[in-house]
Amino acid sequence: MGTTIRFLGGAGTVTGSKYLVQDESSAVLVDCGLFQGVKSLRLLNREPLAIDMPSLKAVILTHAHLDHSGYLPLLLRHGFAGRIFATPPTRALAELILRDSAALQEEEAELANEMGFSRHAPALPLYTTDDVETTLRHFVVRDDNEWIDIGDGIRFRYERNGHILGSAFIELDWKGRTIVFSGDVGRTGALFLENPQRPKQADVLVVESTYGDRLHPADDPAAVLADIVRDTYRRGGMLIIPSFAVGRAQELMVLLHRLRHSNAIPDIPIYLDSPMGLQATEIMRSFPTWHTLPDSESDAMWSEVRMIRKFRETIELLRSKASCIVIAGSGMATGGRVLHYLKERLEDERSTVLLVGYQAEGTRGRQLMDGVHEVKIHGAFYRVQARVCAIRSLSAHADQRELIDWLSELEKPPAHTFIVHGEPQAADALRVKLRERFQWEAIVPRLFDTYLIDS
Ligand SMILES: [Zn+2]
Fold first, then answer.
1. Are the C-beta atoms of residues 260 and 373 closer than 8 Å to each other?
2. Considering the entire predicted model, what is its pTM?
């Protein structure tokens, strides 16, 4: 049969990353993500995977994001009994993300059963907290830059790629051939992550293309943020920033801390109201060698940003009349504590809602970005009278130019290049660019495609 690679997710879409490398005797899965977004994709999470579980030796994670780790509990349920490799911060963040994912699914199933709106009776969560506990026992942590033997002439090594804390690209040495999986490639000059390491050698290359058709705006997010803070302060309002808990919330804290330190913004209280964001921040602090923030700055930031731990404190803050900044989850305002702030302040023209991340179709964040006049929250409508603005230059993903740069140190062209983790238009734009720049003929695989990669 030869050696093949099969695209079980993260092909034709940005979510569900799962890449299976196998030959007659062994199989390895790189990433094990959940499909997210439109329903037709999400339904795939309920389909069994066409993997021969006894031959699957290991799963290797590039990073902790749900679309790269969120299917793991199901893989275990389907009979996987091997090891799950991760860097130490990826293991810590994956635990946080998987527990949160299970809790959300349990909640949703419970709600569906109470309301009787599920076609399945009873509605079942995709997986439970117990499944996550089982999954966590299979994790094995390994540092970057060391070769890790997984038997049968297969080994791999992690090299940091600057996307989130603990993220890495993978060099998989498959019986003498090198297969590089980019993972999600970060940006050069990120706030607290080292610049991405670059691959030097690849016989086979699997590269992401989230922003394969785009260049990030060149504006300075700190300067834009400072303007927005000053404006909200002048009007005496609250600045509400819906934010993802892992990565973005910490970036905002660092940015705001630096702005205040340099007197670019007034001395206005900054709150983080996100139980998950708080834990992600603690995880970041516990891995000082995985980020570039000096201890002194990390300590100053930690003491300056007020962490909201109890819902009682949320209620107090909601009642407060003073101008302040609140970072709260969820990032697209689909749920979480941020909804309470929006209910309280959307109709207040002194306040500001600042969107700082990707806003998917159908979310409240997207509606706000599109300038709707009313938003429905918990069954009631709220008029949008607060100022709504966005910073588009904060991103944890390399853009087209940065992806090309990332590939520029490869000593010779890969025999096979596969473009994954992008909407069709982004993936195709990167394919064209790779031909133009390097004369490589890359393939954009479709979901469930299999390719022979022997020669
Ligand atoms: Zn990611």
1. no
2. 0.93
The Å distance, Cα 16 to ligand 1 centre, comes to 11
Distance from C-alpha of 266 to C-alpha of 106, rounded to nearest angstrom: 43
Residues 308, 382: one domain?
A: yes
Integer Cα distance of 360 and 367 in angstroms: 9
Gap from CA of 233 to ligand 1 centroid (Å): 33
Q: Per this entry, what is the length of the chain? A: 455
Q: Do 346 and 420 fall within a single domain? A: no
Q: Residues whose CB is under 5 A from ligand 1 (ion)?
A: 65, 184
- Mark whether 165 and 297 lie in a shared domain: no
Ligand 1 centroid, distance to 239 Cα (angstroms):
27
For residue 435, how far is its CA from the centre of ligand 1 (angstroms)?
26
Distance 169 CA to ligand 1 centre (A): 12
User: What is the domain count for the chain?
Assistant: 2
Structural domain boundaries, residue 363: 221-390
Q: Measured at the alpha carbon of residue 446, what is the angle toward residues 247 and 415, in degrees to the nearest 5?
A: 90
> 65 CA to middle of ligand 1, Å?
5
Q: List per-residue pLDDT tens for the chain, 455 residues long.
A: 799 999 999 998 889 999 999 999 999 999 999 998 778 888 999 998 889 999 999 999 999 999 999 999 999 999 999 999 999 999 999 999 999 999 989 988 888 888 776 666 688 999 999 999 999 999 999 999 999 999 999 999 999 999 999 999 999 999 999 999 999 999 999 999 999 999 999 999 999 999 999 999 888 999 999 999 999 999 999 999 999 999 999 999 999 999 999 999 999 999 999 999 999 999 999 999 999 999 888 888 888 899 999 999 999 999 999 999 999 999 999 888 999 999 999 999 999 999 998 787 788 999 999 999 999 998 899 999 999 999 988 889 999 999 999 999 999 999 999 999 999 999 999 999 999 999 999 999 999 999 999 87
> Dihedrals φ, ψ of 211, to 5°?
-110, 40
Asked if 355 contacts 368 with a C-beta cutoff of 8 angstroms, the reply is: yes
Among 390, 417, 437, identify where a domain stops: 390
User: 31: CA distance to ligand 1 center in Å?
Assistant: 11
CA 249 to ligand 1 center in whole angstroms: 15
Instruction: Quote the ligand 1 centre to 450 CA distance (angstroms).
Output: 24
Both 368 and 420 in one domain: the answer is: no
